[in-house]
Design a protein that fits this description.
Largest sheet: none
Distance between the termini: 98 Å
Number of helices: 14
CATH architecture of one domain: Up-down Bundle
CATH class of one domain: Mainly Alpha
Protein name: Protein RUFY3
Structural class: mainly alpha
Organism: Apis cerana (Indian honeybee)
Strand content: under 5%
CATH superfamily of one domain: RUN domain
Keywords: Coiled coil
Shape: elongated
CATH topology of one domain: Methane Monooxygenase Hydroxylase, Chain G, domain 1
Helix content: over 70%
Length: 501
């Protein structure tokens, strides 16, 4: 059910008014009458008697005073009656008789496009409209059309969503129910009209039967009076004959007449009984017809109530669809934010994996160094390990004296270098353990923040931005520590290679 507050419907009436007023002829001279759209719409009742009710009711409206206001009210009433396209089609069919006097030859109503417009208006017969013409100010100028309601959004994605499909399915079901109820209402109206015609025919026949009965009663009374008069005359004649001493007169003729009168009287009685029976039947039929009329009225009221409930359900379904669409947009926004957080977490996990690989390499090198330092390992094995670890000479001597000193005191040099390497390795392990501990703490904090964000999606966006900035700062600080640890490990390895050399 569309009201006068519906903005697209107001825009439709503005466009239709411009279409109908396009190409109107101006008035002839200063004193000539001005040709208005209301004069054209009044001519529809000549060809469609159904339009007389609309025009008469609009003429009696106290709030509408101008011709343009009456034309607007006529268009709204015709749309409520679901016959706007039919009335305008009548005008187009009589184009040469009516429209040629009011429109220019190049007007839109005189062109072939008017037929296309009337075909488009046929689809409005499906829509139910409810306008309060008395409360609207139809004499004033209409507003401007807001085309932003009909433009597609730039963020619109082509293709229908499942919510749109559900909405279309619900709309089709509701429209099917509405069409079915309208068909039932039409059938009921047709049956009501037929029953009313039958009731009228029965009432006329009943009246005729009553007239026949009254005529028969009058005939019976007249026959009774004639019979009494005849009896009196017969008695007087018999007395006269007895007094004069003459022989009695034969009464054969009188008896035959009496018998005929009796037969007539019996026939009239039978006719009266038949008429009374028919009258009783007619009365019973009339009572049955009244009961059927009451039942039909009840059915019509129930159907109207169901139509109203279905319209309310349709409005509720529309509101639910709008809410679901808003929730879907919010969920999509949250999913995009969570996807970004997941990608950041993946990048951090990759960095942590690289750090762990470097730590495993350091531990492996440490074990090899310990194996080299152990006294149980033979010299051949240590040399082979040293050859694997340092294929080139780690240290070159600049002078022959330094080489001789190194050859004379190899054990003392090796001991000092091994002690230095042990201290460096312990320092590296402590730094690596502290880095791992800090990294675990940061991961725990990040997981807690992600869980909070997933639990409460409607938190402030500023907290998310601060958390991501802190995590980025921590991640920037960690690679520096890793580089320092890697540099120290490489220094330790070079020292060990020197000691082995």
């Amino acid at each position: 059910m569309l009201d006068s507050d519906h903005m697209p419907l107001q825009h439709f009436f503005i466009v239709l008014e411009h279409v109908l007023r396009h190409g109107l002829r101006p008035k002839k001279g200063l004193l000539g009458p001005k040709k208005e759209l209301w004069d054209i719409l009044q001519l529809v009742e000549k060809y469609c008697p159904e339009a007389q009710d609309i025009t008469s009711s609009i003429r009696d409206l106290p709030t509408v005073r101008t011709a343009m206001g009456r034309a607007r009210a006529w268009l709204r009433m015709a749309l409520m009656q679901k016959k706007l396209a039919d009335y305008l089609k009548v005008l187009i069919d009589h184009k040469e008789d009516i429209l040629s006097e009011y429109f220019e030859p190049d007007a839109l109503m005189m062109s072939e496009e008017a037929i296309v417009i009337m075909g488009l208006l046929v689809g409005l017969n499906v829509i139910d409209c409810n306008f309060c013409v008395k409360e609207e100010d139809l004499d004033c100028q209409q507003g401007v059309i807001d085309f932003s309601l009909y433009l597609r959004n730039s963020n619109h994605i082509p293709g229908e969503s499942p919510d749109d499909e559900l909405e279309n399915d619900n709309m089709t079901t509701v429209l099917d129910q509405k069409n079915y109820i309208e068909e039932l209402n039409r059938h009921l109206n047709a049956t009501v009209t037929n029953l009313q015609a039958k009731v009228e025919s029965l009432t006329t026949t009943n009246a005729l039967m009553k007239e026949d009965l009254s005529i028969a009663k009058n005939n019976i009374l007249s026959l009774h009076e004639e019979n009494r008069q005849l009896k009196k005359e017969l008695g007087i004649e018999i007395k006269d004959t007895n007094e004069n001493g003459k022989p009695p007169i034969k009464i054969t003729e009188t008896t035959t007449e009496i018998e005929e009168l009796r037969s007539r009287l019996e026939a009239e009685k039978k006719m009266r009984q038949d008429v009374e029976k028919e009258l009783e039947l007619q009365m019973s039929m009339k009572s049955e017809m009244e009961v059927a009329m009451k039942l039909l009225e009840k059915d019509i009221h129930e159907k109207q109530d169901t139509i109203i409930s279905l319209r309310r359900q349709l409005d509720e379904i529309k509101l639910i669809n709008l809410e679901m669409y808003k929730k879907l947009q919010e969920c999509e926004h949250e999913l995009t934010q969570k996807g970004e957080m997941v990608s950041r977490l993946h990048a951090k996990t990759n960095q942590i994996g690289k750090i762990l690989n470097n730590l495993e390499k350091c531990n492996h090198m440490k074990k090899e160094v310990e194996n080299i330092r152990s006294p149980t390992t033979p010299s051949s094995v240590s040399k082979s390990i040293l050859n694997k670890t340092s294929p080139t000479s780690p240290r070159c001597y600049t002078s022959a004296d330094n080489a001789v000193d190194y050859q004379q005191h190899p054990q003392s040099n090796n001991q000092q270098q091994s002690a230095n390497n042990l201290q460096k390795s312990t320092n590296n392990q402590q730094q690596i353990s502290s880095i791992n501990h800090n990294h675990q703490q940061s991961n725990n904090v990040q997981q807690k923040s992600v869980v909070k964000q997933l639990d409460s999606p409607n938190n402030n966006k500023q907290t998310r931005v601060d958390a991501t900035q802190q995590n980025g700062a921590k991640c920037k600080a960690k690679p520096d520590k890793r580089e320092q640890s890697n540099g120290e490990v490489s220094m330790g390895e070079s020292g060990e290679e020197r000691s082995t050399a």
